[in-house]
Write a structure and sequence with these properties.
single chain; mainly alpha; two-stranded antiparallel ribbon; 10 helices; globular
Length: 269
């Protein structure tokens, strides 16, 4: 049983293993899609936000899921508190406003409408959620006087290395601000576009001043989470991208080509 989402894409290769992985991935996605995306089919079945935004592109490449996400983002708008805070599970009976939320998880309010726009060219969800994204971003800004934010779960259930919460949460905060900036541009909100563009630049500068060693092209301790997150979310300066990417490749090889973070955590891979 799952929501009726038509097939939108297919992968077929000469590798039986890749074909089976693709088949299993789609079945995992569908088994967690019944009115809204949930986390795991064997136990909680809650609308965990972090699990949903990291799987949204996987789902949209294979299925026409726009109406499911439109419905779920309406739930977001219903659940958002006046100060902009969202719970870590949506819908909720009241739990999740004080634990488990933060930019690394509840960035669903920005990331999913943006992904819908990228896949469909449809601005409706961005328009519907614009004020909610603003409230969310403004709340993070308000509680983060030093520009970078420490709100969030961070490197959840790490395997061998643990990246600071400030690092991972600030990556998502930056992404949210960039999405808000681009949405303001799309919707012709010039003043907001200028305001949030300046905020994004401020976050990026503070992040790189604190975590980037320009001599070595290493972020923080140089572990996979740090290098990949900075690259994926666009925080690496243009002239440093190739070197940081090369360091990430070296680190993956050093880790015996194993991924060094929990698969349920909302990190960029």
């Amino acid at each position: 049983m799952h929501s009726a989402v038509p097939v939108a894409g297919k992968v077929r290769s000469s590798s039986d293993m890749i074909n089976k992985i693709w088949w299993a991935t789609n079945n995992s996605y569908l088994s967690n899609l019944f009115g809204y995306p949930t986390d795991c089919p064997q136990r909680e079945k809650n609308g965990w936000t972090g699990d949903a935004h990291i799987a949204s592109e996987t789902g949209l490449f294979s299925f026409d899921g726009i109406t499911v996400y439109e419905k779920w983002l309406a739930d977001h708008r219903d659940e958002q508190q006046p100060n902009g805070v969202l719970p870590s599970i949506i819908p909720t009976g009241g739990w999740g406003y004080d634990w488990g939320n933060g930019p690394d998880w509840t960035s669903t309010i920005a990331i999913i409408p943006w992904n819908i726009y990228l896949f469909y060219g449809d601005k409706k969800l961005l328009t519907d959620c614009y004020d909610n994204i603003k409230k969310y971003v403004d709340h993070i800004t308000e509680i983060s006087p030093n520009v970078l934010t420490t709100w969030g779960l961070g490197d959840w259930v790490p395997v061998k290395s643990k990246t600071p919460v400030e690092f991972t949460s600030s990556c998502f905060y930056y992404k949210d601000v960039m999405i808000l900036t681009r949405t303001a541009q799309l919707l012709g909100k010039t003043a907001d576009a200028e305001k949030y563009s300046a905020l994004a630049a401020k976050i990026k500068t503070a992040f790189n001043q604190k975590y980037l060693d320009r001599a070595t092209a290493i972020y923080g301790q140089g572990v996979q989470t740090e290098l990949s997150s900075a690259l994926y979310w666009g925080l690496v300066p243009e002239d440093m991208k190739a070197r940081v990417a090369a360091n990430l490749a070296k680190r993956v090889a050093q880790d015996n080509f194993h991924r060094m973070w929990d698969c349920s955590a909302p990190k960029a891979s």
